[in-house]
Amino acid sequence: MSGTAAYKDRQFLAVIGDEDSVTGLLLAGIGHVTEGPELQRNFLVVDSKTETSAIEKAFQNFTQERKDIGILLINQHVAERIRPAVESFTDAFPAVLEIPSKDHPYDPEKDSVLKRVRRLFGE
């Protein structure tokens, strides 16, 4: 696959997060639902009742199956629940960015991207 082909069709953001984070991003205009018999949303709202397997399935869908996602935003506290999947995902696209939530501040020590950067610089 050429360099351009890897990202030219990736025109959407996706988000996996708590209700406040997803609502804010949807209000900002990132929401998208595919057409056709299998409606696919580009977001997953996670709460305390959400099964970890559902989070893993959404992560897999946004990072492996869908080729139209350019950036996946995930609340850091949600990423912690599927940390092995997040850390093992090393493809350039979609970019996976961990974001804070209202109730869970951002911790740079847990961010998988920053961990990789530190390893590159030998820290």
Structure description:
Strands 2-1-3-4 form a four-stranded parallel β-sheet, with helices on both faces. It has helices spanning 3-7, 19-27, 52-65, 76-79, 83-88, 112-120; strands at residues 12-17, 43-45, 69-75, 95-99. It has a single domain (3-120), classed as ATPase, V1 complex, subunit F (Rossmann fold). It has 123 residues and is an alpha/beta fold. It is globular, with a radius of gyration of 15 Å.
Give, in spatial order, the strands making up the sheet with the most strands: 2-1-3-4
What fraction of the residues are assigned to beta strands by DSSP? 15-25%
Taking the sheet with the most strands, its summary is: 4 strands, parallel
CATH architecture: 3-Layer(aba) Sandwich
* Overall helicity: 25-40%
CATH class membership: Alpha Beta
Mean pLDDT: 90
How many domains in all?
1
CATH homologous superfamily grouping = ATPase, V1 complex, subunit F
Descriptive terms for the model:
123 residues; V-type proton ATPase subunit F; alpha/beta; four-stranded parallel sheet
What is the secondary structure topology, with strand pairs?
Elements (H helix, E strand, L loop, with lengths): L2 H5 L4 E6 L1 H9 L15 E3 L6 H14 L3 E7 H4 L3 H6 L6 E5 L12 H9 L3
Parallel strand pairs: 1-2, 1-3, 3-4
Brief write-up:
This protein has helices at 3-7, 19-27, 52-65, 76-79, 83-88, 112-120, and strands at 12-17, 43-45, 69-75, 95-99.
